[in-house]
Structure formats: structure tokens, C-alpha cells
């Protein structure tokens, strides 16, 4: 079955450490996205990529980095520069059919800084 | 990009229809209306989308007014599993999620 996979589901990090969240899709979607969600809040866009080897900052990119070396993969690194990294992170992939943009979301990674 | 306005929360009795409104008065001609929902601690799930005409699928119906300035998502027979946050998004391009409507389906 086609889908989008995020791993791990839960992640604990010590303060000052970088950590990388995995996101893999086999839907053949060109675009991929990373969102952050804090308790009781909506989703905020961190980074997105519309094509391999290209990505753009979203609304809250500071303290995060991404790469897009393969169409299927869009890992997110939470760096030590991110002041408040504890959150629920969601990855999505997307397609475009004329003016219709469809998204599929992964099940998320819950990151806790200890 | 069109801004959307949704009620913060709504209740619905189990088995009844849930009607979730969304205002998008600044929508432009080529922007679609999308509905997603998020059950607690899961990724958002696509429900339905439309441009001008009303749409129906196995999950819901989407009613878009003739002037396209508002729409209503209808869950015809709500169940307890439909309790979630429902997001109405009007966008051409990357989706931006607002606060959504928290729908509580009660027995």
C-alpha cells in the first residue's frame, strides 16, 4: 500500500543535542512538507520542498534544517538552536492536479526534550 | 490567499447529521475548498474538497454556496469516532491550517 511513514513515533532528546526525524513516502508525490503542532494549536509550516534538491522555509524555520536528496525522503533535523523543540511533528506529501493540491499526512513524531 | 473563519467548537448527538460551517468571503476563482480532520495525536486526514459544485463521498458532503463565500461540511450520521478537530482550508498551493472546529459527538 502507498503511504507516508514517519519514524520514530516517540523521540526523547537531551538539551543541546541535534535530532533527525525521518519521513518517507512511496506515493510518488513531488512535494513534501514538515509541520509542527503544539498542544491545542493548529499546524505551523516549518519547511517544504516541491522538487528534489530544492526546499523553502515555512513560517517557523529557525532552528530546523532539511534535505531533499531523494524524491521519497524529506528528513527534518531539529538543531540545538531550536529554543523550544518539544512538540508533535507532522510530515506530509502532496500532489498537484491543475489547481487541486492533495495532501497525505504521516502519523507524526512526538519529540520531547528532557 | 483566502482566510477562513470557523466556529471554535460544536456538539452533535450521535446518529444525527453534523453540519460544520466555514466562511471564506475572500476566496478567489481558482481556489479550492478543502476539509481535513485530525483525531487526537494523529496526522490530519483528508475528507473532501470542492471548487464550485457540491461534492459527496463516502465520508461526507460538501455544500458550497453559489457565491463561494461559504461552505458547509456535512457528516450525515455522526458517530463517536467522528469526534475530532475539523479544518476548512481555502488555498492554491501549500495548505495552511488554522485553529479549526472541535466537533464533539455525544452519545
Describe the structure in your own words:
- The complex is a heterodimer of chains A (114) and B (107).
- With 114 residues, chain A is mostly beta strands.
- Chain A is built from no helices and eleven strands.
- Chain A has strands at residues 4-7, 10-13, 19-25, 31-37, 43-51, 54-57, 64-66, 76-78, 87-97, 100-105, 109-113.
- In chain A, strands 2, 4, 5, 6, 9, 10 and 11 form a seven-stranded mixed β-sheet that branches.
- In chain A, strand 4 (31-37) and strand 5 (43-51) form a beta hairpin.
- Chain A starts with a strand and ends with a strand.
- By secondary structure, chain B is mainly beta.
- Chain B contains no helices and nine strands.
- Chain B has strands spanning 9-13, 18-23, 32-38, 45-50, 55-56, 61-64, 70-75, 84-91, 101-106.
- Chain B has a five-stranded mixed β-sheet with strand order 1-9-8-3-4, with no helix packed on it. A four-stranded antiparallel β-sheet of chain B has the order 2-7-6-5, with no helix packed on it.
- In chain B, a hairpin with a 5-residue loop joins strand 6 (61-64) and strand 7.
- Chain B is globular and about 40 Å long.
- Chain B starts with 8 loop residues before the first strand and ends with a strand.
- Classes of the chains: A mainly beta (114), B mainly beta (107).
- Chains A and B meet through strand 4, strand 5, strand 9 and strand 10 of A and strand 4 of B.
Summarize the structure.
Chain A is 0% helix and 55% strand. Chain A is mainly beta.
Keywords:
heterodimer, A: 114 residues, mainly beta, 7-stranded mixed sheet, 11 strands, B: 107 residues, 5-stranded mixed sheet, 4-stranded antiparallel sheet
Element order of chain B: H for helix, E for strand:
EEEEEEEEE
* Helix-residue proportion of chain B: under 10%
The residue ranges of chain B in which pLDDT falls below 50 over 5 or more consecutive positions are none
As laid out across the biggest beta sheet of chain B, the strand order is 1-9-8-3-4
What is the number of strand segments of chain B?
9
Our Rg estimate of chain B from Cα atoms comes to 13 Å
Largest sheet of chain B: 5 strands, mixed
Describe the global form of chain A: globular
Mean pLDDT of chain B: 92
Identify the most extensive interface between protein chains. A-B, 25 and 23 residues
Amino acid at each position: 500500500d502507498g503511504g507516508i511513514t514517519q519514524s520514530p513515533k516517540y523521540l526523547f532528546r537531551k538539551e543541546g543535542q541535534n535530532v533527525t526525524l525521518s519521513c518517507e513516502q512511496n506515493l510518488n508525490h513531488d512535494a513534501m512538507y514538515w509541520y509542527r503542532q503544539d498542544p491545542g494549536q493548529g499546524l505551523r509550516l516549518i519547511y517544504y520542498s516541491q522538487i528534489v534538491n530544492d526546499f523553502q522555509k515555512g513560517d517557523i524555520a529557525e532552528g530546523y534544517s532539511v534535505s531533499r536528496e531523494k524524491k521519497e525522503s524529506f528528513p527534518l533535523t531539529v538543531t540545538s538552536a531550536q529554543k523550544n523543540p518539544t512538540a508533535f511533528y507532522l510530515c506530509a506529501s502532496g500532489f498537484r492536479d491543475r489547481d487541486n493540491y492533495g495532501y497525505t499526512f504521516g502519523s507524526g513524531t512526538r519529540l520531547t526534550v528532557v | 490567499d483566502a482566510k477562513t473563519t470557523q466556529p471554535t467548537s460544536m456538539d452533535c448527538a450521535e446518529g444525527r447529521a453534523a453540519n460544520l460551517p466555514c466562511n471564506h468571503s475572500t476566496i478567489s476563482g481558482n481556489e479550492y475548498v478543502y476539509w481535513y480532520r485530525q483525531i487526537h495525536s494523529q496526522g490530519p486526514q483528508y475528507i473532501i474538497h470542492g471548487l464550485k459544485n457540491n461534492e459527496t463521498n463516502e465520508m461526507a458532503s460538501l455544500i458550497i454556496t453559489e457565491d463561494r463565500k461559504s461552505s458547509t461540511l456535512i457528516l450525515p450520521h455522526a458517530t463517536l469516532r467522528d469526534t475530532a478537530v475539523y479544518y476548512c482550508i481555502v488555498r492554491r498551493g501549500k495548505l495552511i491550517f488554522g485553529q479549526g472546529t472541535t466537533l464533539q459527538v455525544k452519545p
